[in-house]
Amino acid sequence: MNVILFGPPGSGKGTQSKLLVERVGFTHLSTGEALRNAVGQRTRRGLEAEGIMATGSLVPDALVTEILADLIAHYRPDSDSFLFDGYPRTVSQVSLFDALLKEYRLAEPKVVNLSVPEGYLVARLSGRWMCTRCKATFNVHFKPVAQAGVCDACGGQLVQRPDDKPETVVERLRVYREMTAPVFDEYKRRGWIETVDGVGRQETVYGRIVDALGIATRNRG
Ligand code: ADP
Ligand code: ZN
């Protein structure tokens, strides 16, 4: 089964992806993560994306689609259950994605729409800190650490994503409404959307997602 995890920035796509990968065995394809890796490695694509991402805008469709195609090509020989996170994010990307699904003979995805009211998103994003070592995430409002700047799980150093600064967060939400919400409308029209309430504890939201997808899973928490 292929799944698109859809929802605004801060709706919990990253957190839920992690659980779905660990417990169901999806291959996680996150365009945001792939772009951040490209930035870190100073590749040509990374250098082009870096400044755009820092302002909260979307990187060009062609660039991000190349990145996604590379990921699919890399994993496709061994995997036929992908979890797409952060793509498609524009109406043009929907068509580009249709072509990729065809090229790699991937089954029509189910789209999980994580629904979270906008009021929650700013606090979730601007309070978020991530461990550089184990990638665990924390939040100054909802999930504080014992010692500032230090990961509770592994003792690693915590950093804030450059695009989680409050002014950039507001821009990302604006871009979501303007560019990405129409993707929802298109998939709704196709009947691909399963809406899941994204407010609640991680485990609660996880339970709703697997129920919506009709999949069996370990650790219901
Ligand atoms: P979030 O969903 O929290 O905004 P992501 O990690 O998915 O975070 O994306 C971070 C940034 O990477 C986006 O703000 C955008 O600049 C870029 N990006 C990721 N996916 C895409 C995409 N499909 N199209 C264009 N830009 C993207
Ligand atoms: Zn850690």
Task: Give a written overview of the molecule.
The chain has 221 residues and is of the alpha/beta class. Helices cover 49% and strands 14% of the residues. It has helices at 13-24, 31-40, 44-55, 61-75, 91-103, 118-126, 166-190, 202-213; strands at residues 3-6, 27-30, 82-85, 110-115, 128-131, 137-139, 158-159, 193-197. It has a five-stranded parallel β-sheet with strand order 2-3-1-4-8, with helices on both faces. α1 crosses α8, α2 (31-40) packs across α3 (44-55) and α6 (118-126) packs across α7 (166-190). The longest helix is centred in the C-terminal third of the chain and has 25 residues, at 166-190. It is globular and about 50 Å long. The two termini are 23 Å apart. 30% of the residues are buried. Bound molecules: adenosine-5'-diphosphate and zinc ion (ZN). Adenosine-5'-diphosphate binds next to α2 and α3.
Separation of the first and last Cα atoms: 23 Å
Number of helices: 8
Ligands bound to this protein structure: adenosine-5'-diphosphate, zinc ion
Instruction: Estimate the strand proportion.
Output: 5-15%
What is the spatial order of strands in the main beta sheet?
A: 2-3-1-4-8
Average pLDDT reading: 94
Radius of gyration: 17 Å
Output the keywords.
221 residues; alpha/beta; five-stranded parallel sheet; globular; binds adenosine-5'-diphosphate; binds zinc ion
Short description:
By secondary structure, the protein is of the alpha/beta class. Helix content is 49%, strand content 14%. The structure holds adenosine-5'-diphosphate and zinc ion.
Topology of this structure?
Layout: E1 3-6, H1 13-24, E2 27-30, H2 31-40, H3 44-55, H4 61-75, E3 82-85, H5 91-103, E4 110-115, H6 118-126, E5 128-131, E6 137-139, E7 158-159, H7 166-190, E8 193-197, H8 202-213
Parallel strand pairs: 1-3, 1-4, 2-3, 4-8
Antiparallel strand pairs: 5-6, 5-7
